[in-house]
Amino acid sequence: AFLGPPEFNISSCLRCINITLKLPSTHVRKNGKLLSLFDLYDYFDCEITFKTLDGEHKRSRERFTEEPFSTVIEELYPNRNYCVSVMVTASLNKNSIPSAWKCIITDSVAKKDYRTITIAGAVCFSLILAVILKCMHVGGYILQKKSLPDTLV
């Protein structure tokens, strides 16, 4: 029997990609209960392949005994496109179907700085607006509590 492709999510960081995977479900039942793959096998090996402009790279297998399994591919170039495929083999079953490719762009330094500058700008703008509104209130231009004299009405 072949192990189906695992489900996985990828997210990017500055010079890395975070990968979180979940094993495929089984159709095996025991006493009416649907068994997980961990009920059938002791451990699993995860093999990650990623593609860049330079070609295809395989990472060494990583063993795991519980899910969700997470790993990080580090030392990547910022602001580059990487495509990832994951394959899982079991302790007693080496037949596996790799997942479909998922692609992501790693974060760039400028993108991180841009977010910080945007937030700082929004905070400064809010403070300046609050000061202007307070000055207008103190000066009597907005939110007046005193009614006007009858002669001015």
UniProtKB/TrEMBL annotation:
It is found in: Membrane. GO terms for biological process: blood coagulation. Keywords: Disulfide bond, Glycoprotein, Lipoprotein, Membrane, Signal, Transmembrane, Transmembrane helix. The keyword Iron-sulfur does not apply. SUPFAM superfamilies: Fibronectin type III. Pfam families: Interfer-bind. GO terms for cellular component: plasma membrane. Residues 3-106 form the Interferon/interleukin receptor domain. GO terms for molecular function: interleukin-22 receptor activity. Its main location: membrane. The chain crosses the membrane at residues 117-143. InterPro entries: FN3_sf, Ig-like_fold, Interferon/interleukin_rcp_dom, Tissue_factor, Type-II_Cytokine-TF_Rcpt. This is INRA2 protein. It comes from Odontophorus gujanensis.
